[in-house]
Amino acid sequence: MTQAETKAEASAELDTGLDEPIATPAAQGQAAITPAKLAELSGKAQSLLNNINSVLVGQQQAVRLAVIAFLSGGHVLIEDVPGVGKTLMAKTLAMSVQATFKRVQCTPDLLPSDVCGVSIFEQKEGTFKFIPGPIFTNILLADEINRATPRTQSSLLEAMEENQVTTDGSTRKLPELFFVIATENPIEYHGTFPLPEAQLDRFMLSLSLGYPKFEQEVEILDKTLDEHAFQVQPVLTEEEVLAARHAVRNIFVEPSIKRYIVNIVSATRKYPQIVLGVSPRGSQLLMRAAQAAAFIDGRNFVRPEDVKALSPFVLGHRIIPKVRDNRVSHADLIERVLEQVPVPV
Fold first, then answer.
1. Max Cα–Cα distance, the chain, nearest Å
2. Mind listing the pLDDT tens digit for each residue in 181-207?
3. What is the span of the domain harbouring residue 135?
4. Residue from 310, 232, 219 nearest 47 by CA
């Protein structure tokens, strides 16, 4: 069966609205998601997008990328100058979900125990009691993460990759729904500690917001005069987010799409202007992000366009170019790599 026939059949199955499970390889060993359930959860994802876009003006692409990472189980790094809405986007996403949210303002004197927690001695009971840190939450905002010392930054590595924290020799699981959205100012260098490559690799997506257009900034001023313009009501529960993540993993990825992803990643390792290419983790996260993009659009299959559109944001911060520059140029390099990789038809 050709890819076009596969797409047509999958699209027809989705449009029928029947409650027959979607039989895909991704669903093996898991409870299958019916087309009706997929449509319902996809509608919830659209509500989440609309909720955040009602607060942030002119940031549809950035909001979509953040929601893609959120629904696919990844983490997001937002790099931009102060005052463009990085923290507002993170807080609005958190307010849109009925889940616990905590914020850590990173500073050079922030200690790992301030993030992960610490054990204190209870004199009455004669035992140590663990006091959880802010990392024990569903949605964590690490504001200005590059102002924290490398020691504190490293305390997030285990949590972001393995969903657990090890303190005082004991390993403690984090909530099943755990999402980190970190911000940093890439222009300021005084009192900052650039994130090492190992930690950058833990973020599924890296993005920037940029300055708004003229009319958009006027709209922002209008919103500023409204006391409740930057507040939203929850549109998703924790259980619905976990169900959506399960649905994302059931989105069908055709073998030719998988080969396309690997071809892109392999090309970054051979590109003459790139010293260090993308690791296999990058290809895994690119596929997962493409599944989430298809899910948000109400499709149960991934298209090459999903992969191509997301590649600069998923792979850009995973490469090291020969000429060091800001990470916007990294995304440009990925765009050039994409031009050399044949798109499956």
1. 71
2. 999 887 776 778 888 888 889 999 999
3. 55-231
4. 232
Domain tally for the chain? 2
- Specify whether 65 is located in the same domain as 33: no
Predicted model pTM: 0.85
- Domain final residue pick, 231, 251, 279: 231
Based on the fold, state whether residues 109 and 28 are members of the same structural domain: no
Amino acid at 182: A
Same domain, 263 and 293: yes
Q: Residue 277: how many CB atoms within 10 A of its CB?
A: 18
Residue 291 maps to which CATH number? 1.10.8.80
CA atoms of 90 and 106, how far apart (whole Å): 15
- Give me the amino acid identity at 300: N
Say if residue 60 is in the same domain as residue 202: yes
Contacts 24+ apart (CB under 8 A), 256-263: 256/3, 256/344, 257/287, 257/290, 257/302, 257/303, 257/304, 257/307, 257/344, 258/287, 259/344, 260/304, 260/307, 260/341, 260/343, 260/344, 261/286, 261/287, 261/290, 261/307, 263/341, 263/342
Chain segment 210-231, per-residue pLDDT in tens: 899 999 999 999 989 988 888 8
Quote the pLDDT of residue 325: 52
* 269 & 301 share domain: yes
Arithmetic mean of pLDDT, 31-51: 87
pLDDT score of 278 more than 50: yes
- DSSP assignment letter at 16: H
**Predicted confidence (pLDDT) at residue 156 exceeds the cutoff of 90:** no
Are 48 and 235 spatial neighbours (Cβ–Cβ below 8 Å)? yes
On whether both 316 and 223 belong to a single domain, the answer is no
> Coil, strand or helix: which one is 67?
helix
> Domain containing 68 — which CATH number?
3.40.50.300
**Domain end marker among 231, 253, 288:** 231
Q: Which amino acid is at 123?
A: Q
Ramachandran quadrant class, 78 (left: phi over 0; alpha: psi -120 to 50; beta: rest): beta
Pair 243, 192 in one domain: no
Highest average pLDDT, of 87-91, 142-146, 155-159, 280-284, comes from 280-284
220 and 243: one domain? no
List 105's β-bridge partners, or say none.
Answer: 143
